[in-house]
Structures are given as C-alpha cells and as structure tokens.
C-alpha cells in the first residue's frame, strides 16, 4: 500500500519495489562515501611503523594485565621499558627482540616504539613483575 495523499491509498507493487531499490542504492553510496572520507582522514595520521635490524626499540607495558609496573599504580607509571635491540623482522607486523628469557621475544609492531633517548635514561625490566 502506498499513500500519495491523505485519505488515498494506491497499490503500486513494481513501482514501490523499484523506488525502494533506488533508495537502498543511494544509502549504500552515501555510506561508502562516508567510509572513504573517514579512511582518508585516518590515513593522514597513520605512520607506518618499520624498524631495521639492530634498531633500538621500547616495549609498551601499559596494556598488560597482571603486571605490576615498578611497584606503582596510577598515571605516573612508565608506559614503555627498554631499549631493546631488534634481532629480526617476522612477517610484516612482528619483530623478534633481544629481551630476557622470561618474556616472549616476538612482539607486534603496535607494542613497540623507536627509542630516541640515551640508554642511561631508559627504564629497564628489573622492576617489572609478572603475576
């Protein structure tokens, strides 16, 4: 049933279906345009993370559950430890690092950050306790 004016009802089977299909196509095109626009904004801020063998990197420890970082809690905790040397690249997004045996030595690139600081200023793994 299709309402054109108040009080009138018309049954327009194929026309109604065609109009609905056209509206769906318009909606899909609008959603695709919004997705493309958002992707272009995100790509402007995205920096590809790549490290070379023998580069020094820091390991992110803030998202780890069950980790007490240096006996402190709160926002003043160190978020990265290191630096550690990159031993090898594994695939496109993982790296093998020269870290102590108690930790897994292959990490995703999202958990790494290039080390630009001097080594004496860096935070070591000594104060990190795993539960």
TrEMBL record:
Coiled coil: none annotated. Residues 55-116 form the Tf2-1-like SH3-like domain. It comes from the Eukaryota. Pfam families: SH3_Tf2-1 (PF24626). GO terms for molecular function: RNA-directed DNA polymerase activity. PANTHER family: CHROMO DOMAIN-CONTAINING PROTEIN (PTHR46148), NUCLEOTIDYLTRANSFERASE, RIBONUCLEASE H (PTHR46148:SF59). This is Putative reverse transcriptase domain-containing protein.
